[in-house]
Design a protein that fits this description.
The complex is a heterodimer. By secondary structure, chain A is an alpha+beta fold. Chain A folds into two domains: 43 residues; 135 residues, Rieske [2Fe-2S] iron-sulphur domain (Rieske Iron-sulfur Protein, 3-layer Sandwich), CATH 2.102.10.10. Chain A is built from five helices and nine strands, in the order H-H-H-E-E-E-H-H-E-E-E-E-E-E. The radius of gyration of chain A is 29 Å and the shape is elongated. The N terminus of chain A is likely disordered. Chain B is an all-alpha fold. The C terminus of chain B is likely disordered. Classes of the chains: A alpha+beta, B mainly alpha.
């Protein structure tokens, strides 16, 4: 066997020690490997959101019935969306806080639209593990900072929906939205 | 695969001889769980739980396949199809209660099986592979149980799915795409329910396959025993059948009585009333808790409430929860003591019971609301859990002076009986 390999190597190696059989072996296995990856990719990708899930219309919200201090719950991308009109007192409370002391430093201005600071539009998804915080419904616990309170693991958000206490790492997400009129917004 | 003195399979009937030549399956069974498998003679009732776990798996497979016959894996009908199974399908209530409570019993016996292994050092050489495969089964069980709990599409199903897949969202950069990929959407929905059903059906068969590997790996060195002293000769063993088939049969009887008590008299005792409310993505239940068998891990997850340097608390909790299980994969190399059984390790024994209490405390805190004093207690208990495996065990292994071991299993058995009663005093050990 050894002599055969020797002959094979010497004849076909072309002087640099690479045998033709090794080359064919590596080339064949590599080609099969690329083929296997090409097959696995769609097997994995089929689990990603399908076109009908992705084709989610943006949500329009009518603000005319929401009184100061009141909030409503609606849906955006099949997840809860909180739309809240802050009272003067709540705005003052949010502005009083020095942003540099916060876990996720942001001011109320950065989280609302210019000149419409009273409209706080956030996702109703706790940034900890995705529960719906309380505080948007009538009479629900708003936590010790007066914003939202997540019952799952006790995260408290303030009146600008910024994380103040508990395990959540981020403020409630503010989705992309714009005012279509004085009393209506388009989210998404 | 067995000791040299194992009884040989010798089929007498010509048909069995014919089968044995063509496909020696009866021979395999005979050598695995029959008279052809010699087992240490001194196994106590804690050695029943492997067989009981197998029994629980069979109960889950049978009732589960039947449940699948009546279930609709679509968010529109899932909840009502389960209620229909309960109310309209003949004996459907029995199948569903048996399946739901069977899962709890599966975890009860597996936890006892794991703690048996921890106390008697069953994870030590030469049985490391048995331990590692057992942990793989445990992880598969947790994944299967989690996905099964989503299928009735109740409030706890939905929010459990959201919280658990949210764990993956804590991973930096790739977390959110992974979470979306797992769910097939931005929140649990029809795509999630369908894939969970598919995998919940598949995984138990994967578990069954790993169970075969687990038993195969076990049968190479043979079972450990309460003394931790290896088998030295034929006098140390008895054939699996009839000795341990009988002993396991008795254990199975006790298991089934307890199972029947829960099943027929307290079928919802371990469940959550919230799961009889259909899933509502806009309303979180006031108190989300997983099933009781996840509580210790859930407590570790919630124990992290403040950021540590640059790592957010959320990620720390997730890492700690996964680490608490992955840590066990390293146990055979963390405990370096050459003495297996806790019965001969006075210091180890004390800390073992502290660990048991610690895990029970974690379990209690995991089921309690996320408020003080439970948060602080879970923090302390989580810290001890990790300290036990990473600090206490390696230190005990180095400094503990073990009690003298018996020379053989037979010596230990005879000495014990010589002391406890006079009937078998015929052959004292010394």
């Amino acid at each position: 066997m050894a002599s055969v390999e020797h002959t094979d190597g010497e004849v076909l190696a072309g002087g640099d020690g690479v045998r033709r059989r090794d080359f064919i072996n590596i080339a064949a296995v590599s080609f099969a490997g690329v083929g296997a990856v090409a097959v696995v990719l769609p097997l994995i990708d089929q689990m990603n959101p399908s076109a009908d899930v992705l084709a989610l219309a943006s949500t329009e919200v009518d603000l005319s019935d929401i009184q100061p201090g009141q909030a409503i719950k609606t849906t955006f991308r099949s997840q809860p969306l909180f739309v809240r009109q802050l009272t003067e007192k709540e705005i003052a409370e949010a502005d009083k806080v020095d942003p540099s002391t916060l876990r996720d430093p942001q001011t109320l201005e950065e989280r609302t639209v210019d000149g419409k600071k009273q409209w706080l539009i956030t996702m109703g998804v706790c940034t900890h593990l995705g529960c719906v915080p309380l505080g948007a419904g009538e009479g629900e616990n708003r936590g010790e900072y007066g914003g939202y309170f997540c019952p799952c693991h006790g995260s408290s958000y303030d009146t600008a929906a910024r994380i103040r206490k508990g395990p959540a790492p981020k403020n409630l997400e503010v989705p992309k939205f714009s005012f279509t009129s004085d009393t209506a917004i388009l989210v998404g | 695969m067995s000791f040299p003195w194992a009884e040989q399979y010798t089929p007498k009937h010509p048909v069995m001889q014919w089968v044995d030549e063509k496909l020696p399956l009866p021979r395999l069974v005979y050598n695995a769980v029959g008279a052809g498998y010699p087992v240490p003679r001194n196994l106590n009732y804690f050695w029943n739980f492997g067989v009981l776990a197998g029994l629980a798996l069979v109960i889950q497979l049978v009732t589960g396949v039947i449940m699948a016959m009546h279930y609709g894996a679509n968010t529109l009908v899932a909840f009502s199809s389960v209620e229909q199974t309960m109310r309209d399908v003949n004996a459907g209530w029995l199948m569903r209660y048996a399946h739901a409570n069977g899962a709890s019993f599966f975890f009860i016996v597996v936890y006892l099986h794991i703690f048996r292994g921890l106390y008697f050092g069953s994870y030590k050489a030469p049985r490391e592979m048995v331990w590692l495969l057992g942990l793989v089964i445990f992880l598969l069980m947790m994944a299967t149980a989690f996905m099964g709990y989503v299928l009735p599409w109740g409030q706890m199903s939905y929010w459990g799915a959201k919280v658990i897949t949210g764990l993956f969202g804590a991973i930096p950069v790739v977390g959110e795409p992974i979470q979306t990929w797992l769910l097939g959407g931005f929140a649990p929905g029809n795509a999630s329910l369908n894939r969970f059903f598919s995998l919940h059906f598949l995984l138990p068969f994967v578990i069954a396959a790993v169970v075969i590997l687990h038993i195969w790996a076990l049968h190479i060195p043979g079972s450990s025993n309460p003394t931790g002293v290896e088998v030295k000769g034929p006098q140390d063993t008895v054939p699996f059948h009839p000795y341990y088939t009988a002993k396991d049969g008795f254990g199975a009887g006790v298991f089934l009585i307890l199972f029947a008590i829960l099943l027929f008299f307290l079928p919802n005792y371990l469940g959550h009333p919230d799961n009889y409310i259909e899933a509502n993505p806009l309303s979180t239940p006031a108190h989300i808790v997983p099933e009781w068998y996840f509580w210790p891990f859930y407590a570790i997850l919630r124990a992290f409430t403040v950021d540590f340097f640059f790592i957010p608390a959320k990620l720390l909790g997730v890492l700690a929860m996964f680490a608490s299980i992955l840590l066990l994969f390293f146990l055979p190399w963390l405990d370096t003591s050459s003495v297996r059984s806790g019965s001969y390790r006075p210091t180890f024994k004390k800390f073992f019971w502290i660990l048991v209490i610690d895990v029970l405390i974690l379990g209690y805190c995991g089921g309690a609301p996320a408020e003080e004093p439970y948060v602080m207690i879970s923090q302390i208990a989580s810290a001890y859990y990790f300290a036990h495996f990473l600090i206490v065990l390696p230190l005990i292994s180095r400094f503990e002076k073990p009690l003298p071991l018996p020379n053989s299993i037979t010596e230990a058995v005879l000495a014990k009986h010589g002391h406890s009663d006079g009937e078998t005093a015929a052959v004292p050990a010394e």
